[in-house]
Write a structure and sequence with these properties.
It is a single chain. This protein has two helices and six strands. With 151 residues, it is of the alpha/beta class. The protein has one domain. 14% of the residues lie in helices and 13% in strands. The strands form two sheets. The chain has a four-stranded parallel β-sheet with strand order 1-2-3-6. Strands 4-5 form a two-stranded antiparallel sheet.
Length: 151
């Protein structure tokens, strides 16, 4: 119906689903640990999910818009609707790695059109990015907020 509008909007849906491909202009990634699910220790930060998303968009839906994702971690323990889901921020590495992962699948000649920071500042979900890696301790061997990762 919206294709009949003078200036039709772009319709983008969460994750590519074969049944809906023709109805949408693209798909976006969202905080997810992937098929292995949430781990009690938060160790599954979503790498497998993001890799699957980028591969699927490139191979199966190259004509659709891809909106990649990055997140600093996740922890819904403070939310009244908590499902005890957790992704460890890993001293800022979860955010850094999710921010860079798309580069394995997209190049300057074939760029990722959009990258979204997912659930930005939903404090009850532990997704605020302003704190960076402030809870990390440099003396423990973990990188602090003031020690950027090597490129």
């Amino acid at each position: 119906m919206v294709d009949q509008w003078q200036d039709p909007p772009l319709l983008i849906y969460k994750d590519p689903y074969p049944n809906y491909v023709s109805a949408f202009d693209g798909f976006y990634a969202w905080v997810s640990p992937g098929k292995d699910g949430w781990k009690p220790d938060g160790s599954n930060w979503g790498q497998e999910y993001l890799e699957h998303f980028y591969v699927t968009m490139n191979k199966q839906y190259p004509g659709k818009l891809a909106v990649g994702a990055a997140w600093p971690g996740f922890n819904d323990a403070r939310a009244s609707w908590s499902q005890n889901r957790r992704m460890d921020p890993r001293c800022g590495r979860t955010f850094e790695e999710s921010l860079r992962l798309f580069r394995r699948y997209y190049t300057p000649d074939h760029p990722l059109p959009f990258l979204m920071i997912d659930t930005w500042n939903d404090y009850e979900e532990g997704t605020a990015i302003e704190g960076g890696a402030t809870n990390c301790n440099a003396s423990s061997g973990k990188r602090s907020a003031y020690q950027p990762a090597a490129r």
